[in-house]
TrEMBL record:
<keyword id="KW-0406">Ion transport</keyword>
<feature type="domain" description="RCK C-terminal">
    <location>
        <begin position="368"/>
        <end position="453"/>
    </location>
</feature>
<dbReference type="Pfam" id="PF02080">
    <property type="entry name" value="TrkA_C"/>
</dbReference>
<dbReference type="InterPro" id="IPR036721">
    <property type="entry name" value="RCK_C_sf"/>
</dbReference>
<keyword id="KW-0813">Transport</keyword>
<dbReference type="InterPro" id="IPR036291">
    <property type="entry name" value="NAD(P)-bd_dom_sf"/>
</dbReference>
<dbReference type="InterPro" id="IPR006036">
    <property type="entry name" value="K_uptake_TrkA"/>
</dbReference>
<keyword id="KW-0520">NAD</keyword>
<dbReference type="Pfam" id="PF02254">
    <property type="entry name" value="TrkA_N"/>
</dbReference>
<feature type="domain" description="RCK N-terminal">
    <location>
        <begin position="1"/>
        <end position="123"/>
    </location>
</feature>
<feature type="domain" description="RCK C-terminal">
    <location>
        <begin position="143"/>
        <end position="227"/>
    </location>
</feature>
<dbReference type="InterPro" id="IPR006037">
    <property type="entry name" value="RCK_C"/>
</dbReference>
<keyword id="KW-0630">Potassium</keyword>
<keyword id="KW-0633">Potassium transport</keyword>
<feature type="domain" description="RCK N-terminal">
    <location>
        <begin position="232"/>
        <end position="348"/>
    </location>
</feature>
<dbReference type="InterPro" id="IPR050721">
    <property type="entry name" value="Trk_Ktr_HKT_K-transport"/>
</dbReference>
<protein>
    <recommendedName>
        <fullName>Trk system potassium uptake protein TrkA</fullName>
    </recommendedName>
</protein>
Amino acid sequence: MKIIILGAGQVGGTLAENLVGEKNEITVIDSDPTILRALQDRLDLQVVTGVGSHPDVLRKAGAEDADMLIAVTNSDESNMLACQVAYSLFKTPTKIARVRSEQYIIYQEQLYKQQDIPVDHIIAPEQLVTQAIKRLIDYPGALQVVEFADGQASLVAVKAYYGGLLVGHALSALKEHMPNVETRVAAIYRRGRPIRPLGTTVIEADDEVFFIAATKHIRAVMSELQKLESSYKRIMIAGGGLIGAGLAKRLEHSHNVKLIEYSPERAQYLSAHLDKTIVFSGDASDSDLLSEEGVEQVDAFIAVTNDDEANIMSAMLAKRMGAQKAMVLIQRSAYVDLVQGGEIDIAFSPQQATISALLTHVRRGDIVNVYSLRRGAAEAIEAIAHGDKNTSKVVGREIGDIKLPPGTTIGAIVREEQVIIAHSDTMIEANDHVILFLVDKKYISDVERLFQPSAFFFG
Protein backbone atom coordinates (compact mmCIF):
# COMPACT_ATOMS: atom_id res chain seq x y z
CA MET A 1 0.00 0.00 0.00
CA LYS A 2 1.08 3.59 -0.56
CA ILE A 3 0.56 5.35 2.77
CA ILE A 4 1.19 8.98 3.79
CA ILE A 5 1.74 9.56 7.51
CA LEU A 6 1.29 13.13 8.68
CA GLY A 7 3.29 13.77 11.88
CA ALA A 8 6.64 12.20 12.80
CA GLY A 9 6.19 12.23 16.60
CA GLN A 10 6.01 9.14 18.83
CA VAL A 11 2.90 7.71 17.15
CA GLY A 12 3.81 8.62 13.57
CA GLY A 13 7.38 7.32 13.96
CA THR A 14 6.32 4.04 15.62
CA LEU A 15 3.59 3.50 13.02
CA ALA A 16 6.05 4.09 10.18
CA GLU A 17 8.42 1.56 11.77
CA ASN A 18 5.59 -1.01 11.99
CA LEU A 19 4.51 -0.53 8.37
CA VAL A 20 7.87 -0.22 6.61
CA GLY A 21 8.75 -3.81 7.51
CA GLU A 22 5.58 -4.97 5.75
CA LYS A 23 6.67 -3.83 2.26
CA ASN A 24 4.46 -0.74 2.25
CA GLU A 25 5.52 2.45 0.48
CA ILE A 26 5.61 5.03 3.28
CA THR A 27 6.01 8.82 3.11
CA VAL A 28 6.15 10.84 6.34
CA ILE A 29 5.36 14.58 6.44
CA ASP A 30 6.48 16.84 9.29
CA SER A 31 7.49 20.47 9.69
CA ASP A 32 10.64 19.49 11.65
CA PRO A 33 13.45 18.42 9.26
CA THR A 34 15.63 17.10 12.14
CA ILE A 35 13.05 14.50 13.22
CA LEU A 36 12.50 13.48 9.60
CA ARG A 37 16.23 13.07 8.99
CA ALA A 38 16.56 10.80 12.04
CA LEU A 39 13.59 8.74 10.82
CA GLN A 40 15.02 8.41 7.30
CA ASP A 41 18.42 7.33 8.67
CA ARG A 42 16.72 4.44 10.48
CA LEU A 43 13.98 3.37 8.08
CA ASP A 44 13.48 2.82 4.35
CA LEU A 45 10.90 5.54 3.65
CA GLN A 46 10.39 8.92 1.98
CA VAL A 47 10.08 12.18 3.92
CA VAL A 48 8.65 15.58 3.04
CA THR A 49 9.22 18.70 5.14
CA GLY A 50 6.27 21.08 5.37
CA VAL A 51 2.74 21.67 6.69
CA GLY A 52 0.82 18.46 6.06
CA SER A 53 -2.52 20.10 5.32
CA HIS A 54 -1.03 22.26 2.49
CA PRO A 55 -2.04 20.93 -0.95
CA ASP A 56 1.46 21.35 -2.49
CA VAL A 57 3.05 19.43 0.41
CA LEU A 58 0.52 16.57 0.07
CA ARG A 59 1.11 16.52 -3.71
CA LYS A 60 4.87 16.32 -3.16
CA ALA A 61 4.25 13.38 -0.76
CA GLY A 62 2.41 11.52 -3.55
CA ALA A 63 -1.21 12.15 -2.49
CA GLU A 64 -2.41 11.84 -6.10
CA ASP A 65 -2.04 8.06 -6.02
CA ALA A 66 -1.86 7.33 -2.27
CA ASP A 67 -4.12 4.59 -0.86
CA MET A 68 -4.30 6.06 2.63
CA LEU A 69 -3.59 9.21 4.64
CA ILE A 70 -2.99 8.82 8.39
CA ALA A 71 -2.91 12.22 10.15
CA VAL A 72 -1.43 11.93 13.65
CA THR A 73 0.00 15.40 14.42
CA ASN A 74 -0.63 16.96 17.84
CA SER A 75 -3.30 19.23 16.35
CA ASP A 76 -6.83 17.84 15.84
CA GLU A 77 -7.62 20.70 13.47
CA SER A 78 -4.55 20.06 11.27
CA ASN A 79 -5.40 16.34 11.12
CA MET A 80 -9.00 16.98 10.08
CA LEU A 81 -8.04 19.67 7.55
CA ALA A 82 -5.43 17.37 5.96
CA CYS A 83 -8.16 14.72 5.49
CA GLN A 84 -10.43 17.36 3.91
CA VAL A 85 -7.71 18.48 1.46
CA ALA A 86 -6.77 14.87 0.61
CA TYR A 87 -10.44 14.11 -0.15
CA SER A 88 -11.29 17.31 -2.05
CA LEU A 89 -8.16 17.55 -4.21
CA PHE A 90 -6.75 14.03 -4.44
CA LYS A 91 -9.72 11.72 -3.75
CA THR A 92 -7.58 9.71 -1.30
CA PRO A 93 -9.59 6.49 -0.62
CA THR A 94 -8.96 6.10 3.13
CA LYS A 95 -8.38 8.97 5.57
CA ILE A 96 -7.66 8.45 9.28
CA ALA A 97 -7.27 11.25 11.83
CA ARG A 98 -6.10 11.21 15.43
CA VAL A 99 -8.61 13.33 17.38
CA ARG A 100 -8.10 14.09 21.05
CA SER A 101 -10.59 16.81 21.95
CA GLU A 102 -13.68 15.47 23.68
CA GLN A 103 -15.82 18.04 21.85
CA TYR A 104 -14.95 16.61 18.43
CA ILE A 105 -15.44 13.05 19.68
CA ILE A 106 -18.89 13.61 21.27
CA TYR A 107 -20.31 14.78 17.92
CA GLN A 108 -18.41 12.34 15.69
CA GLU A 109 -21.57 10.79 14.16
CA GLN A 110 -22.73 14.17 12.87
CA LEU A 111 -19.31 15.58 11.92
CA TYR A 112 -17.38 12.87 10.09
CA LYS A 113 -19.27 12.35 6.86
CA GLN A 114 -17.90 12.74 3.33
CA GLN A 115 -20.05 15.81 2.69
CA ASP A 116 -18.98 17.45 5.98
CA ILE A 117 -15.56 16.46 7.37
CA PRO A 118 -14.41 13.50 5.25
CA VAL A 119 -12.60 11.42 7.86
CA ASP A 120 -13.18 7.67 7.44
CA HIS A 121 -11.89 6.64 10.87
CA ILE A 122 -11.05 8.69 13.93
CA ILE A 123 -8.56 7.42 16.51
CA ALA A 124 -9.05 8.85 20.02
CA PRO A 125 -5.96 7.82 22.07
CA GLU A 126 -7.34 8.97 25.42
CA GLN A 127 -10.49 6.88 24.97
CA LEU A 128 -8.43 3.83 23.98
CA VAL A 129 -6.19 4.14 27.04
CA THR A 130 -9.19 4.66 29.32
CA GLN A 131 -10.79 1.44 27.98
CA ALA A 132 -7.53 -0.49 28.44
CA ILE A 133 -7.17 0.66 32.07
CA LYS A 134 -10.84 -0.11 32.77
CA ARG A 135 -10.28 -3.70 31.57
CA LEU A 136 -7.30 -4.06 33.93
CA ILE A 137 -9.50 -2.83 36.81
CA ASP A 138 -12.16 -5.39 35.82
CA TYR A 139 -9.59 -8.24 35.90
CA PRO A 140 -7.29 -7.66 38.90
CA GLY A 141 -3.89 -9.28 38.37
CA ALA A 142 -3.95 -9.19 34.53
CA LEU A 143 -1.08 -7.46 32.70
CA GLN A 144 -3.10 -6.92 29.52
CA VAL A 145 -6.66 -7.73 28.48
CA VAL A 146 -7.90 -7.42 24.88
CA GLU A 147 -11.35 -8.30 23.57
CA PHE A 148 -12.55 -9.85 20.31
CA ALA A 149 -15.88 -10.39 18.55
CA ASP A 150 -17.75 -7.66 20.44
CA GLY A 151 -16.39 -8.81 23.79
CA GLN A 152 -17.32 -12.50 23.46
CA ALA A 153 -13.70 -13.74 23.64
CA SER A 154 -10.66 -12.26 25.39
CA LEU A 155 -6.92 -12.68 25.27
CA VAL A 156 -5.32 -12.11 28.67
CA ALA A 157 -1.69 -11.85 29.75
CA VAL A 158 -0.88 -12.84 33.34
CA LYS A 159 2.28 -13.57 35.26
CA ALA A 160 2.36 -17.07 36.75
CA TYR A 161 3.18 -16.89 40.48
CA TYR A 162 4.47 -19.39 43.02
CA GLY A 163 1.36 -20.90 44.55
CA GLY A 164 -0.63 -20.82 41.30
CA LEU A 165 -2.38 -24.16 40.81
CA LEU A 166 -0.79 -24.78 37.42
CA VAL A 167 2.78 -23.66 38.23
CA GLY A 168 5.10 -26.68 38.05
CA HIS A 169 2.55 -28.62 35.96
CA ALA A 170 2.23 -29.26 32.23
CA LEU A 171 -0.29 -27.28 30.18
CA SER A 172 -2.25 -30.50 29.57
CA ALA A 173 -3.22 -30.35 33.28
CA LEU A 174 -5.41 -27.30 32.56
CA LYS A 175 -8.12 -29.59 31.21
CA GLU A 176 -8.06 -31.78 34.35
CA HIS A 177 -8.25 -28.74 36.65
CA MET A 178 -11.11 -27.15 34.72
CA PRO A 179 -13.05 -29.82 32.84
CA ASN A 180 -15.93 -27.43 32.10
CA VAL A 181 -13.84 -24.46 30.88
CA GLU A 182 -12.30 -24.37 27.42
CA THR A 183 -9.11 -22.28 27.10
CA ARG A 184 -5.98 -22.19 24.98
CA VAL A 185 -2.55 -20.88 25.93
CA ALA A 186 -1.50 -18.86 22.87
CA ALA A 187 2.03 -17.98 23.99
CA ILE A 188 4.43 -18.13 26.93
CA TYR A 189 7.27 -15.69 27.48
CA ARG A 190 10.03 -16.92 29.78
CA ARG A 191 12.69 -14.38 30.77
CA GLY A 192 11.52 -12.22 27.87
CA ARG A 193 11.78 -14.92 25.18
CA PRO A 194 8.81 -16.70 23.54
CA ILE A 195 8.51 -20.46 24.00
CA ARG A 196 6.06 -22.58 22.02
CA PRO A 197 3.22 -23.80 24.26
CA LEU A 198 2.79 -27.55 23.90
CA GLY A 199 0.75 -29.91 26.06
CA THR A 200 3.99 -31.05 27.69
CA THR A 201 5.22 -27.49 28.44
CA VAL A 202 5.61 -27.00 32.19
CA ILE A 203 4.63 -23.54 33.47
CA GLU A 204 7.26 -21.93 35.70
CA ALA A 205 6.84 -19.10 38.20
CA ASP A 206 7.33 -15.67 36.55
CA ASP A 207 6.31 -16.95 33.09
CA GLU A 208 4.19 -14.41 31.20
CA VAL A 209 1.27 -16.47 29.91
CA PHE A 210 -1.14 -15.34 27.16
CA PHE A 211 -4.36 -17.33 27.07
CA ILE A 212 -7.61 -17.10 25.11
CA ALA A 213 -11.01 -18.00 26.50
CA ALA A 214 -14.64 -16.95 26.36
CA THR A 215 -14.75 -13.67 28.32
CA LYS A 216 -17.10 -15.20 30.93
CA HIS A 217 -14.37 -17.77 31.83
CA ILE A 218 -11.42 -15.37 32.16
CA ARG A 219 -11.38 -15.15 35.95
CA ALA A 220 -11.58 -18.94 36.32
CA VAL A 221 -8.53 -19.43 34.08
CA MET A 222 -6.60 -16.65 35.86
CA SER A 223 -7.15 -18.44 39.16
CA GLU A 224 -5.19 -21.44 37.81
CA LEU A 225 -2.10 -19.36 37.16
CA GLN A 226 -2.03 -17.06 40.18
CA LYS A 227 -3.80 -16.51 43.45
CA LEU A 228 -6.93 -14.65 42.37
CA GLU A 229 -6.91 -11.07 43.57
CA SER A 230 -10.07 -9.68 45.05
CA SER A 231 -11.91 -7.00 43.08
CA TYR A 232 -10.61 -3.46 43.32
CA LYS A 233 -12.92 -1.18 45.28
CA ARG A 234 -10.85 1.89 46.22
CA ILE A 235 -9.16 3.69 43.33
CA MET A 236 -6.92 6.78 43.49
CA ILE A 237 -6.21 8.61 40.21
CA ALA A 238 -3.36 11.12 39.83
CA GLY A 239 -4.07 13.54 36.98
CA GLY A 240 -7.38 15.05 35.91
CA GLY A 241 -6.74 15.37 32.18
CA LEU A 242 -8.83 13.61 29.53
CA ILE A 243 -7.73 10.12 30.64
CA GLY A 244 -8.02 10.75 34.40
CA ALA A 245 -11.43 12.42 34.06
CA GLY A 246 -12.70 9.75 31.62
CA LEU A 247 -11.56 6.96 33.92
CA ALA A 248 -13.14 8.56 37.00
CA LYS A 249 -16.43 8.92 35.08
CA ARG A 250 -16.42 5.22 34.10
CA LEU A 251 -15.48 3.95 37.57
CA GLU A 252 -17.23 6.29 40.01
CA HIS A 253 -20.58 4.45 40.10
CA SER A 254 -19.00 1.05 40.79
CA HIS A 255 -15.90 2.05 42.80
CA ASN A 256 -14.83 4.45 45.51
CA VAL A 257 -12.78 6.98 43.46
CA LYS A 258 -10.49 9.81 44.58
CA LEU A 259 -8.76 12.05 42.04
CA ILE A 260 -5.78 14.38 42.61
CA GLU A 261 -5.36 17.25 40.11
CA TYR A 262 -2.54 19.81 40.32
CA SER A 263 -4.43 22.77 38.80
CA PRO A 264 -7.00 24.31 41.22
CA GLU A 265 -9.14 25.54 38.28
CA ARG A 266 -9.24 22.11 36.63
CA ALA A 267 -9.93 20.46 40.01
CA GLN A 268 -12.89 22.80 40.51
CA TYR A 269 -14.21 22.00 37.02
CA LEU A 270 -13.90 18.24 37.62
CA SER A 271 -15.56 18.51 41.00
CA ALA A 272 -18.59 20.10 39.33
CA HIS A 273 -18.73 17.63 36.42
CA LEU A 274 -18.13 14.29 38.17
CA ASP A 275 -20.92 12.72 40.22
CA LYS A 276 -19.35 10.68 43.01
CA THR A 277 -15.58 11.16 42.58
CA ILE A 278 -13.88 13.08 45.41
CA VAL A 279 -11.52 15.60 43.76
CA PHE A 280 -8.48 17.17 45.47
CA SER A 281 -6.19 19.90 44.21
CA GLY A 282 -2.55 19.15 44.97
CA ASP A 283 0.65 17.38 44.05
CA ALA A 284 0.25 13.59 43.71
CA SER A 285 3.85 13.05 44.84
CA ASP A 286 3.23 14.90 48.14
CA SER A 287 3.50 12.16 50.77
CA ASP A 288 1.52 14.20 53.32
CA LEU A 289 -1.42 14.53 50.91
CA LEU A 290 -1.31 10.82 50.02
CA SER A 291 -1.18 9.91 53.69
CA GLU A 292 -4.12 12.21 54.56
CA GLU A 293 -6.19 10.65 51.78
CA GLY A 294 -5.49 7.09 52.95
CA VAL A 295 -3.27 5.86 50.13
CA GLU A 296 -2.46 2.76 52.24
CA GLN A 297 -6.13 1.69 51.86
CA VAL A 298 -6.10 2.05 48.07
CA ASP A 299 -6.49 -1.05 45.85
CA ALA A 300 -5.12 0.66 42.72
CA PHE A 301 -3.18 3.92 42.36
CA ILE A 302 -3.30 5.07 38.72
CA ALA A 303 -1.00 7.93 37.62
CA VAL A 304 -2.10 9.46 34.30
CA THR A 305 -0.67 13.01 34.21
CA ASN A 306 1.13 14.31 31.08
CA ASP A 307 4.50 13.99 32.82
CA ASP A 308 6.18 10.54 32.71
CA GLU A 309 8.57 11.28 35.57
CA ALA A 310 5.78 12.65 37.79
CA ASN A 311 3.70 9.52 37.08
CA ILE A 312 6.59 7.18 37.91
CA MET A 313 7.57 9.02 41.12
CA SER A 314 4.02 9.38 42.49
CA ALA A 315 3.21 5.72 41.73
CA MET A 316 6.40 4.45 43.39
CA LEU A 317 5.68 6.60 46.43
CA ALA A 318 2.07 5.39 46.62
CA LYS A 319 3.21 1.76 46.39
CA ARG A 320 5.79 2.24 49.15
CA MET A 321 3.14 3.87 51.31
CA GLY A 322 0.90 0.82 51.02
CA ALA A 323 -1.17 1.05 47.82
CA GLN A 324 -1.88 -2.50 46.62
CA LYS A 325 -1.30 -1.90 42.89
CA ALA A 326 0.49 0.92 41.05
CA MET A 327 -0.26 1.65 37.38
CA VAL A 328 1.32 4.41 35.31
CA LEU A 329 0.80 6.05 31.96
CA ILE A 330 4.10 6.48 30.09
CA GLN A 331 4.41 8.47 26.87
CA ARG A 332 7.99 7.41 26.10
CA SER A 333 7.64 3.76 25.21
CA ALA A 334 11.35 3.13 25.96
CA TYR A 335 10.51 3.72 29.65
CA VAL A 336 7.80 1.04 29.77
CA ASP A 337 10.15 -1.95 30.08
CA LEU A 338 12.37 -0.07 32.53
CA VAL A 339 9.68 0.49 35.13
CA GLN A 340 7.15 -2.34 34.76
CA GLY A 341 7.47 -5.28 37.11
CA GLY A 342 9.28 -3.65 40.03
CA GLU A 343 7.40 -1.35 42.38
CA ILE A 344 5.23 -0.37 39.43
CA ASP A 345 2.94 -3.24 38.48
CA ILE A 346 1.71 -2.07 35.09
CA ALA A 347 2.97 0.63 32.72
CA PHE A 348 0.85 1.42 29.68
CA SER A 349 1.71 3.48 26.63
CA PRO A 350 -0.90 5.52 24.74
CA GLN A 351 1.26 4.98 21.64
CA GLN A 352 0.72 1.20 21.72
CA ALA A 353 -3.05 1.63 22.10
CA THR A 354 -3.09 4.09 19.19
CA ILE A 355 -0.87 1.90 16.99
CA SER A 356 -3.18 -1.11 17.59
CA ALA A 357 -6.22 0.91 16.49
CA LEU A 358 -4.42 2.26 13.42
CA LEU A 359 -3.15 -1.18 12.36
CA THR A 360 -6.74 -2.48 12.39
CA HIS A 361 -7.51 -0.09 9.50
CA VAL A 362 -4.25 -0.71 7.63
CA ARG A 363 -4.35 -4.50 7.52
CA ARG A 364 -5.46 -6.18 4.30
CA GLY A 365 -8.10 -8.90 4.17
CA ASP A 366 -11.11 -8.66 6.47
CA ILE A 367 -9.16 -8.02 9.67
CA VAL A 368 -11.44 -6.41 12.24
CA ASN A 369 -9.17 -6.18 15.30
CA VAL A 370 -5.43 -5.85 15.77
CA TYR A 371 -3.71 -5.56 19.15
CA SER A 372 -0.06 -4.76 19.58
CA LEU A 373 1.30 -6.87 22.45
CA ARG A 374 4.54 -6.95 24.42
CA ARG A 375 5.44 -3.39 23.44
CA GLY A 376 4.92 -4.07 19.74
CA ALA A 377 6.89 -7.35 19.41
CA ALA A 378 3.81 -9.58 19.09
CA GLU A 379 0.32 -9.13 17.68
CA ALA A 380 -3.12 -10.59 18.24
CA ILE A 381 -5.48 -10.47 15.27
CA GLU A 382 -9.15 -11.13 14.65
CA ALA A 383 -9.78 -12.03 11.00
CA ILE A 384 -13.03 -13.02 9.33
CA ALA A 385 -12.85 -16.08 7.05
CA HIS A 386 -14.55 -15.58 3.67
CA GLY A 387 -15.15 -17.70 0.61
CA ASP A 388 -15.37 -21.49 0.32
CA LYS A 389 -12.97 -24.42 0.00
CA ASN A 390 -12.21 -23.46 -3.63
CA THR A 391 -11.46 -19.77 -3.06
CA SER A 392 -10.07 -19.70 0.49
CA LYS A 393 -6.92 -21.15 2.05
CA VAL A 394 -8.69 -21.56 5.42
CA VAL A 395 -12.44 -22.15 4.91
CA GLY A 396 -13.43 -25.82 4.95
CA ARG A 397 -10.08 -26.85 6.39
CA GLU A 398 -9.07 -28.26 9.73
CA ILE A 399 -6.66 -26.04 11.66
CA GLY A 400 -4.01 -28.78 11.66
CA ASP A 401 -3.99 -28.71 7.82
CA ILE A 402 -3.56 -24.92 7.49
CA LYS A 403 -0.01 -23.78 6.72
CA LEU A 404 0.40 -21.10 9.38
CA PRO A 405 3.50 -18.86 9.38
CA PRO A 406 6.20 -19.65 12.01
CA GLY A 407 5.25 -18.68 15.57
CA THR A 408 1.56 -18.20 14.68
CA THR A 409 -1.22 -19.95 16.58
CA ILE A 410 -4.98 -19.94 16.07
CA GLY A 411 -6.36 -19.62 19.58
CA ALA A 412 -10.12 -19.51 19.12
CA ILE A 413 -12.97 -19.12 16.66
CA VAL A 414 -16.11 -17.11 17.34
CA ARG A 415 -19.04 -18.48 15.34
CA GLU A 416 -22.14 -16.32 15.85
CA GLU A 417 -22.72 -16.54 19.64
CA GLN A 418 -20.36 -19.47 20.20
CA VAL A 419 -16.69 -19.26 21.31
CA ILE A 420 -14.85 -22.36 20.05
CA ILE A 421 -11.36 -22.95 21.47
CA ALA A 422 -9.14 -24.10 18.61
CA HIS A 423 -7.85 -27.69 18.29
CA SER A 424 -6.03 -29.25 15.34
CA ASP A 425 -9.25 -30.95 14.12
CA THR A 426 -11.41 -27.79 14.40
CA MET A 427 -12.87 -26.93 11.00
CA ILE A 428 -13.05 -23.26 9.92
CA GLU A 429 -16.31 -22.20 8.30
CA ALA A 430 -17.20 -19.12 6.23
CA ASN A 431 -17.82 -15.99 8.35
CA ASP A 432 -15.97 -17.40 11.39
CA HIS A 433 -14.07 -14.79 13.41
CA VAL A 434 -10.62 -16.37 13.77
CA ILE A 435 -8.36 -15.14 16.59
CA LEU A 436 -4.64 -15.55 15.92
CA PHE A 437 -1.54 -14.82 17.98
CA LEU A 438 1.74 -13.91 16.25
CA VAL A 439 4.92 -14.17 18.27
CA ASP A 440 6.78 -12.41 15.42
CA LYS A 441 4.83 -9.73 13.59
CA LYS A 442 7.08 -9.85 10.52
CA TYR A 443 4.82 -12.69 9.32
CA ILE A 444 1.72 -10.47 9.35
CA SER A 445 1.54 -10.20 5.54
CA ASP A 446 1.52 -14.03 5.31
CA VAL A 447 -1.48 -14.10 7.67
CA GLU A 448 -3.23 -11.41 5.62
CA ARG A 449 -2.75 -13.46 2.46
CA LEU A 450 -4.18 -16.55 4.18
CA PHE A 451 -7.43 -14.69 4.82
CA GLN A 452 -7.79 -13.04 1.41
CA PRO A 453 -10.06 -15.21 -0.75
CA SER A 454 -8.98 -15.46 -4.34
CA ALA A 455 -10.97 -16.36 -7.45
CA PHE A 456 -7.85 -18.13 -8.75
CA PHE A 457 -7.16 -20.31 -5.73
CA PHE A 458 -8.16 -23.95 -5.94
CA GLY A 459 -7.18 -26.02 -2.91
